[in-house]
Amino acid sequence: MDFPAELKRQIARVEHGLDRHVPAAGTRPARLHSAMRYSLEAGGKRLRPVLVLSAAELFATTAAYDPAADPVPAAVAIECVHTYSLIHDDLPCMDNDDLRRGRPTAHKAFDEATALLAGDALLTHAFSLLATAYAGRPALAQALVRELADAAGSRRLIGGQMEDLLAEKKADATPDELEFIHLNKTAAMIEAALVMGGRVGGAPEDALPALRHCGRSLGLAFQIIDDVLDATSDSATLGKTAGKDARADKTTYVKLHGLDASRRMAAELTATAQSALAGLGRNHAFLAALIAQMAGRTK
Amino acid sequence: MDFPAELKRQIARVEHGLDRHVPAAGTRPARLHSAMRYSLEAGGKRLRPVLVLSAAELFATTAAYDPAADPVPAAVAIECVHTYSLIHDDLPCMDNDDLRRGRPTAHKAFDEATALLAGDALLTHAFSLLATAYAGRPALAQALVRELADAAGSRRLIGGQMEDLLAEKKADATPDELEFIHLNKTAAMIEAALVMGGRVGGAPEDALPALRHCGRSLGLAFQIIDDVLDATSDSATLGKTAGKDARADKTTYVKLHGLDASRRMAAELTATAQSALAGLGRNHAFLAALIAQMAGRTK
């Protein structure tokens, strides 16, 4: 398998899906739809939607194209939710960031009210898309909505955000609080991506716990590596401001456990994710290579 | 039928459902769940959820209690979406309101970030609840998610908000723009309430257009009456600041068409709603009385 070529192919499917399954910028209300697309088109790694597609391919058969088994709408839905969470995170009342991936954040490019509404609309659109694209398989649509809404909900994604904000106001977060934050703020959506992909691809129910376990480990590793890179990389390599955590005296894995232990934890979690994946007994070469790439990333 | 007693009974079902189907204030993260409940418990007319329940009763048979046919979760879901839209509307970057129903708004009682996240979480919870409570009827769950997500989405509820914000910045909105705003900002969710209730109650597909037509007319009438009351009532009666529209030189039905014509339009739309309802040929005494009460309301 040619990993870079395959990754490029998967990302192209995501980009095409985003264009196809999100309202066009010119449709009424044009300003709102423009803001939604502006943020979606800011790029990024497309990690979560690529995970959806590759998890679906673990299970998909080579039968004729079936729109009801197309994982692209599920991939787009999860990227809409991820993008909404970034837009709202960047708002002045949250992290107050002016730049995201080198471009002005949504509230800078438009205004705060438009950014707020664009985030709301992307979140809402994710559920509309799942319910519409999989209308022909209502049990799948129901399961996908439930999976995504739970991962993005008050106990997980939003809960992680909330505790992250509260932790910033305290002198020190505990290891337990830090794990709660990262399990929910980061790992929840990565878990959901793999499980949703598996469901669309027709994974048997008994394969879902392994996908979930893989996603949870991968998500935690991803966040720890983020912490390590913030502490060790420079802004030019990272494409965003480095050293922010230390300057803000933010509690991170690096601050709590040190650099070496953090790198070791990330490596162990990555190995756990790989073995959960391998345990499925499917052709998982692409997903394994993607996980390895994530573990070795420098930005 | 004793209308006040029946209305009280329906509202009690909604209140009980809100308590049962929304995370408890003390569960982690407690601050987030407290903020969600604070706003949900602020009261209000509970119009949308009562419409869900009463539309379901138009079609429900008197068979034994079936949790998969219980309209309460759908009613709670629509109230969660309505409440999220109020929380985000009240934020400083939107209408910047400090009071709602006589109590401090969520960002005043908590803070802006918590209010933002509580709104996000209520919106997300609505979809989780529909997918969970109706898991035993996946086609119903899928249809309800689609109905609610479309009504709350970028072309309807959020679209109406967006155009409302843009209209405020212009000297004058046109009648067409005003109708777009109200059809989407107000009528969309009232339509969805009746259609969702009908679906849960087992309405045949061919009854849904009449429910939608009823909701659309009712929603527009509701908004025009709001405009009339803002222009003619006092703050004490209204329970909120009266005369706000005129002071802000906001384009309303009253400003565009005058008081008499606005009252006439509201009466005509109410009559349209009543005849759409009557055309269903069901026992609609409660819903008809509710519509009549809405048309005659003084706050």
Secondary-structure map:
The structure is a homodimer of 299-residue chains.
Chain A lengths: L2 H19 L8 H11 L6 H13 L12 H19 L8 E2 L2 E2 L1 H4 L2 H22 L4 H15 L4 H12 L6 H27 L6 H25 L2 H4 L5 H4 L5 H5 L1 H20 L6 H11 L4
Antiparallel strand pairs in A: 1-2
Uncertain runs of chain A = none
The CATH topology of chain A turns out to be Farnesyl Diphosphate Synthase
CATH class annotation of chain A? Mainly Alpha
The strand line-up of the biggest sheet of chain A is 1-2
Under CATH, the homologous superfamily of chain A reads Farnesyl Diphosphate Synthase
Average pLDDT level of chain A: 94
Notable characteristics:
mainly alpha, 1% strand, homodimer, 71% helix, 299 residues, Farnesyl Diphosphate Synthase, two-stranded antiparallel ribbon
